[in-house]
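worker-03 picked up job from queue 'complexes'. Input manifest follows; two sequence lines, order preserved.
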Amino acid sequence: MSFAAELLISIFLVISGVFGFVGSFGLVKLKNSLQRLHAPTKATTLGVGGVLVASMIYFYVEKGHLSVHELLITLFLFLTAPITANFIAKTYMARNLRKQDLPESQSDYGWSIYDDPPESVQLPENGTEPVVLDPAKDGGAQS
Amino acid sequence: MLRRLVPHPLLSLTLVLVWLGLVNTFTLGNLILGLGFGLVIPMVTAPYWPNRPKLGHPLKVLEYFLIVLWDIIVANVQVAMIILFKREPSIRSHWIPIPLELTSAEAITVLAGTITMTPGTVSATLSADGRSILVHCLHTDDPESVRDDIKSRYERRLKEIFQ
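worker-03 finished. Artifact:
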């Protein structure tokens, strides 16, 4: 393996190590659960990303073919990490925050953790305005 | 008929590509097996995907992807600086409500995921009617500018892609 490739791989490994460390350090330093939630997003983006780029370069230089597994790991991380973060945030809000602690939602209904969705409004479809169902009209159509 | 056989062409294509990526070697056998998955899985799971999200120009998708990638790198460095060099009491976290213009569920999902993956902001919840999103920001002096950034950088582009 050439020196340039080794250097490049090392740089990416060091970058990912640094961000992995900062992410973990943030968990220790920050005091509030919601602030702590911000730390692992770094570890999962640049921390893992650096290792994956290093791994791709290594396999390309060493074995001579492009490895796609790393791209898939990125894909799956990007699909799953926001959902976990969202669940943790919601659990925290449900347990520790009251409606008054949060800013107004600036729409007609409050935040979904505390408020029920409007029953007469269907979920917005692709590119269309929400359809307001009129119960009387529906009953009329059936009879 | 074709619509029944391939209800979600994009999903089928994704499945084929993911399968080829998982086995990591391109052979005819793997391609046929992947095509089989791409045909069967969307058919079996079709009831769970009632709508077909319409995607805009592929170049727009690519542009969005690259912008998000760049923002992730920049924001990573910013947040790392905050964590390493800012004293804990001086970190000012904010809740930022952002009114949404996006209406399709897919677009809002992508936006929420983008907000969470860019370090420094986490999307926490939607309003009950799906018209605004609550974002938690680790540290900012100007919540308004964070809101405007998210609206102009991500939401505007997602609107072009999904609508």
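worker-03 released lock.
Residues 133-143 of chain A have pLDDT under 50 and may be disordered.
The CA atoms of residues 120 and 135 of chain A lie 8 Å apart.
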